[in-house]
C-alpha cells in the first residue's frame, strides 16, 4: 500500500522503517527541522516528500505528531477527506521527575476523536498507540497485540493488515469512541515501562 507518515519523530521513523521493510511504499513528511526529516527518510528508506504531496499519493495516512502539533500538521497536509487516517498519538504527558505518566486532566475526548473532528471527511482509525517506538522499529514476532479502533469497517481492516504486516496481532476494539479507553490504557503501559521499570512488552502481553 501507499502510506504517508506525517511526523518524523521516534514513532514516525519507527513506523516508516517497519512498513518499508514489510514491502509498502512509504513517504515521510512534516516537522520543524528539515534536516531531521531528511535524515529520517534516509534512515528508514522512505521517500522524502512535502506533506501535501505525500498525502495526495497515499491510501493511508499515519499521523504520528504529538497533540499540540496536530493543527499545524493538518494545515500542511491539506484535505484528508476520504482517506484512511491513523491517529497514533495518545496525548501522554511525561513527568520528568519520573513520578507519574498520565493523560492531561482536561482531556474529555481521545486524540483520535479530536483528529476526526478536525480532519473533515477522513476515515479515522486509532492504532499503534500501545507500543513503544523501539518495539515498532524492531518489528513484532507475531505474539504481541496492537488494538485497532474505528467506525469504518473497511478502514479498520486495512489498518489491521498493516499491524499484521509489521509482525503484531491486530485486535479490533470497536468504534472510535473506544480510543478513549485505549489512550488511557496507554497511560498504564507507559507507567509500567517508564516509571515502574517493567519490561516494555508487559502491557501488550497482558492484553494478549
From TrEMBL:
Stored Pfam families: F420_oxidored (PF03807)
Gene3D superfamilies with a match to the protein in the record: NAD(P)-binding Rossmann-like Domain
Protein keywords: Oxidoreductase
Residues annotated as domain Pyrroline-5-carboxylate reductase catalytic N-terminal: 2-90
Molecular-function annotations in GO: oxidoreductase activity
PANTHER family for the chain: DUDULIN-RELATED, REDUCTASE
Name of the featured protein: Pyrroline-5-carboxylate reductase catalytic N-terminal domain-containing protein
Species name: Mycolicibacterium hodleri
Amino acid at each position: 500500500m501507499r502510506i504517508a507518515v506525517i511526523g518524523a519523530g521516534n514513532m514516525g521513523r519507527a513506523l516508516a522503517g517497519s512498513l518499508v521493510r514489510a514491502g509498502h511504499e512509504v513517504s515521510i513528511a512534516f516537522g520543524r527541522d528539515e534536516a531531521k526529516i531528511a535524515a529520517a527518510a534516509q534512515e528508514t528508506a522512505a521517500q522524502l516528500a512535502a506533506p501535501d504531496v505525500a498525502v495526495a499519493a497515499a491510501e493511508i495516512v499515519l499521523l504520528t505528531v504529538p497533540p499540540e502539533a496536530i493543527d499545524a500538521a493538518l494545515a500542511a497536509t491539506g484535505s484528508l477527506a476520504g482517506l484512511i487516517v491513523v491517529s497514533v498519538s495518545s496525548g501522554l504527558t511525561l513527568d520528568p521527575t519520573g513520578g507519574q505518566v498520565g493523560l492531561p486532566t482536561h482531556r474529555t475526548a481521545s486524540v483520535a476523536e479530536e483528529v476526526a473532528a478536525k480532519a473533515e471527511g477522513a476515515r479515522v482509525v486509532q492504532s499503534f498507540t500501545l507500543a513503544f517506538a523501539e518495539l515498532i522499529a524492531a518489528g513484532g514476532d507475531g505474539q504481541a497485540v496492537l488494538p485497532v479502533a474505528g467506525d469504518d469497517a473497511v478502514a479498520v481492516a486495512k489498518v489491521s493488515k498493516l499491524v499484521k504486516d509489521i509482525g503484531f496481532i491486530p485486535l479490533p476494539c470497536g468504534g472510535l469512541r473506544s480510543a478513549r479507553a485505549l489512550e488511557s490504557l496507554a497511560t498504564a503501559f507507559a507507567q509500567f515501562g517508564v516509571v515502574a521499570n517493567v519490561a516494555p512488552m508487559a502491557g501488550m502481553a497482558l492484553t494478549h
